Fold each of these.
Amino acid sequence: MSAPLVLMVLSAQGMETALRIRSGYPDAVIHGLEGRVQGADQMFSNFGETLRQQYGNGNPIAALCSAGITIRALATVLDNKGAEPPVLAIADDGSAVVPLLGGTTGVNVLARQLSKILDVLPAITTSGELRFGTCLLNPPAEFHLKNPADGKRFIADLLAGKKVHIEGVAPWLEEARLPVDADGPMHIRITPLDLAPQSNELIFHPKTVVIGLTGEARTEDVRNALAAMNIAHSSVACVAITEAESAKPYFPQIAADLGAPLRIVATDHATAKSLVSAFIEKPVNLTGDDSLAIAIAATPGDIILVGHKRGRLAVIGLGPGDPNFMIPAVKQELQHAEDILGYETYVRMAGSFRSDQTIHMTDNREEMQRARHAFALAASGRSVVMISSGDPGVFAMGAAVVEALHESADPAWHSVDLQILPGVSAAMAAASRSGAPLGHDFCILSLSDNLKPWDIIEKRIALAAEADFAMAFYNPISKPRPWQLPRAIEILRQYRAPETPIVLGRDIGRPAETLRVITLAELTPEQVDMRTVILVGSSLTQSFDRIDGGKWVYTPRWYGTKPTG
Ligand code: SAH
């Protein structure tokens, strides 16, 4: 899964260019400068900080501004040449594409692609690349350069006029304008074998090896088998397993240990040997037995991708609304998703999606049905994101998804890579806006009696009030549930003083946000709706005036008597 291209846009004209780029390069995410740019996927306020953060995350970046601004902004972090992502500057009117950084991670390839979309010539400055039309140090994904450290000298020698002998099959090199000569002193070897490079030699490992596994397996056995055949790990194209065995947790682990993708194949009673044969019509080499087999294809192109990859289901929390309150792991998950499921409001809140992402908007109130739909998609090999607001584990889809898995005996569902990613829940968001009303022990209650009986809710409010917890009420009131909140307030008043601070947070983190601090005596149901979270103070919760006319609220961390000192 390669990282999506980040387009950093500073002006309205830059935005036009960014949209042109994205129409030809859908896997791009537009980040716009706040106040200057409309319609971006994500907003930023500090160019330098955002750029350095994206660079640090390893995302390819195209900044639609001058090369100078871009380089200056990255100057302090430019010390790690090996790992750097491609960085380009693009004139905001789209008239120039300048690759700046990331020679070994494909900046020139990217520059060519983007130039083509913008119909200009890229400003390629790398001499080896200009002469040979390809960057030897940045081969296509299905080849891996074993000894990149030797690359610079190798290219310098070629530039100085030395000839090169190529051994092995690499269509991409055939297209390059290399000075080929069978007797040349320089060597390029394409081989899946784990050989030590000779002097003046570059070794590329092609992804031509398929490993089939059935039954019990350990990474060590696979490593030993590869070592016995002297095969380089980076030549492993995939690890193949059968769908029936896809729930076994050690298979994904072995694939991860080898750094290779897992392919799940729908065949019954397959031996490892028959499994790998499905991938390669004419294997150069095929060894193994029923449980572990290895086959080598002549070229990466000879591997037929049967089966599907391991599906992923991420149940994510968007936070209350403001993208700055969304954790970075959730943002990444949204970018990598192939299918997005959720209520329309939340899907819209999540930002814009690319045309290659499928959105399944749902107003289906049946949570279990939605959860099963998500699993069915993920089990077929898709990357699925299920969206909740706030935190997915707080009155949201998290529990339904895990419950659906619990109820299922389908191994394909259990083999899905399930991840639950947290978010800032409404109570936390509202609490932080008002100070620290949940600073000591507290509990969160939903006042909705749709899924639980009302007498349980009453009992919980009464006991929590008696135990002197601070409280957060979610789903406080709605048209079909008009009397429940008044009853809850009545119970609170039996245990709490009239001056107990109450925080009413409405649409926190959204454009219509309001926050009010009142007392329990002042609380009436008319002040509250479904978009409100109510925070109720404990007996120790304090509030005092703040300079802007509002109030600070906090619950101290001590209890009973205030500690001295
Ligand atoms: N998973 C969500 C809660 C969903 S239940 C979370 O963790 O925040 C829906 C209830 O959450 C609403 O009725 C309201 O009480 C509260 N809520 C959700 N988002 C809110 C927001 N931005 N501001 C105030 N309350 C919110």
Amino acid sequence: MKSEHLILVVLTVLTCRVAQPGPATAAEPGRKPNILLIVADDLGYGDLGVQGCTDVPTPNIDSLAKNGIRFTSGYVSCPVCSPTRAGLMTGRYQQRFGHEFNPGPPRAASTDFGLSLQETPLPARLKSLGYATGMFGKWHLGYKPEFHPLKRGFDEYIGFLGGAHSYLDNREGANSILRGNDPIEQVTYTTDMFGEGAAAFIEKNKDKPFFVYLPFNAVHMPLQATDKYLQRFRGVIKDQKRRTYAAMLSALDDNVGRVLAKLREHGLEENTLIFFLSDNGGPTAATTSRNDPLRGYKGQVLEGGIRIPYIIQWKGHLPAGKVCDQPVISLDIHPTALAAAGGTISPDWKLDGVNLLPFLRGDKTARPHETLFWRYGPQHAARKGDWKLLVQARQAAPQLYNLARDIGEAHDLAAEEPAKLKELQASYDQWNAQLISPKWRNGGGKGKKAGKADKSGKAVVE
Ligand code: CA
């Protein structure tokens, strides 16, 4: 009796506790669900109301958690922008195809830079399943024509190809905001423009299955906001930098709300699978973005660089208002979206991400991932269960943390738990042996130090 009780307790702890019966098919028989993938840029773990932020209201993004599943151990596959996006689009660890670093701006980027043409991105796979595909925002996966979003599976595109852009104007040459292939003459505040573009695409495609990829440049540098958003925090937040950041975050939240309202207007919310995540942790010194209670920043494989807000909503199909503690990663979105769309995932694709739907419906109770890995230049990490191996620099001593007891990575247990350390190192070595050398370095230049951890989060704002 006692052992049965123990087994029950263990099962309850190990699973997401989200098991809840729900229909396995779409709301409208025969109609494939729409997919909405919202990505925030440089949004830290503690930057949303639902994640503990107290001075900037984010009711619309928080509503996704209220109506869906919030992952407290949601990760991205890199602590900076472009590599994470390569993993997100392909469902594969991006180091498998050499996409380990950011490229730098167009003039500095390596001529090799771009999402490998050997890889098939998510929009291309959804397009082949009959989806209308639209992208609105930051691409950061290639400047050359063959890497353009319209060549990688998107039917429509409004956005810029680089890693950062002014929010207020469009005078950036090769990094200009384009509609399709043409620079846009008159731009509005980019956060509004991308939200509006996504809403218009939904309006146009409301009668067929669609995939909307909405990678806002908010809340990445530069710190720029319009009066409409700034006035909300005048006299409320004294620090000017924080006030501007709050306005940018508020604009992001408004525009998530705008897109959700458009779905609701056409009764599409129950037939739309929605993902929300950030592409890396916050660069606190640069923007005031917060990663509490995590240690570290954008650019580091400490939790603060790689653990991010991660929410999935699919009303009527997945549980609402649930919190999942099991580790998931951005790589899971590709197979999860394809599975929802009725696609078959071929083992030949060698995806690293897994379809999360059976876990979220309660059909599977094991963890989606036994182990997750990170490599970013001289830094690397592995998470196995609650244990994390961390190496912060070349020839640095490996550290070991128990994240269940020590989410802030404050107590290095490497000396106390040598067997566990060895086990994680062996797992990492096995994974690392499957990767190839990076095809380019940060900033594109040869011989530059790449992936260097920055203690303040200041130098890694690209
Ligand atoms: Ca980013």
